[in-house]
Fold:
Amino acid sequence: MKDKAKLNVGSIEIAWLDGGSFHVDGGTMFGPVPKVVWERKIPPASDNDIFLVASPILVRTGQNNVVIDTGIGNKLTEKQAKIHGIRDKWALPESLKEMGLSPEEIDTVILTHCDYDHAGGVLAEKDGEIVPTFPDARIVMQRSEWEDVSHPNRRSAHTFWEINFRGLAECGRLDLVDGEREIVPGISVRHTGGHNRGHQVVRIESRGETAYHLGDLLPSHAHFNPLWVMSYDNYPMDVIDQKEKLEKEAMDENAWFLFYHDPVTRACKFGEKGILKEKFER
Ligand SMILES: [Zn+2]
Structure:
């Protein structure tokens, strides 16, 4: 997958990296929505499957190099890759290199949450060892998400894989947020819950322009309707409330919405009823 175009938000530069891709059952991505309705938005690739990417987003402010979410990583077993319908492998370091950056130059990694398809690239397998992908970056997440990673319940145990967090507590680079905080100038996070108890979103602002990364509250442009939740959402009523509130706030600012899982529409601006006013495609 080659996709190195950049979106500018004020003086901040935004680009999408190769975090892997997969096929997933369309029904699970659109929870309560009947197929005859969702297939008009994202046509199934085959049968009931739809194709999705897991695209970490590189944000360059001039002073800071920030990566939001890290893709599926390279530590999946063959069996896991099959179960999760992996198509394109994780190639984050390679795509970073194409952007002229090394992993050492990333100073901040923000995780919207810790499901394997978002946090799988924090650590990487290299020459038979598990090492930090970004050796000099602090890893930012909500404290409540980290608590749940440390003590997963029966459901989250399937997506919080120990191998994705091994040694993180001891490395001294975890930065746990309670609620809302500016992470670097122009980039702030806010706790939402909903998808996961400790899910957070990211707001980017520069020179009067804004962009929102709503993580898995809004995985693709097709999920605009607040009622269109996923079967993966742990607290769907919170997703509905938060999506409604944040979409309004962002639309009032004429903000860009950035997507992590959308294979075609990387970012867009929404008009009334979710009509796309402007779009940025791969
Ligand atoms: Zn996801």
